[in-house]
Design goal:
mainly beta; seven-stranded mixed beta sheet; four-stranded antiparallel beta sheet; 11 strands; 0% helix; globular
Length: 126
Amino acid sequence: QVQLVESGGGLVQTGGSLRLSCAASGRTFSSYAMGWFRQAPGKEREFVAAISWSGGRTYLADSVKGRFTISRDNAKNIVYLQMNSLKPEDTAVYYCAASKAGNYGSYYSSERYDYWGQGTQVTVSS
């Protein structure tokens, strides 16, 4: 079992930056692929970014490429989402998710992930 706790959300102006953190419990964090998803009011949850267990591969949604970066620190059991050049359309609740080793399927799909955090609100004002 893995517990995920997101932090770092808040209110920021257009063009600003935030760094989200996701702290994971458990000794097997380094074996999990990790992802970030977001859900805006009235919309479905959507993929934002993902990173392989080693950090060697990263995946980004087209809408955030060039602005967001995902990284992880396996020694600290933390995954980060650095968000730059934020836009009002980035406003959403951001969720961290963990995918157990051995899972198959697309990193872009929420179905791949086994554990989810409670989410952190990001609001970008225009």
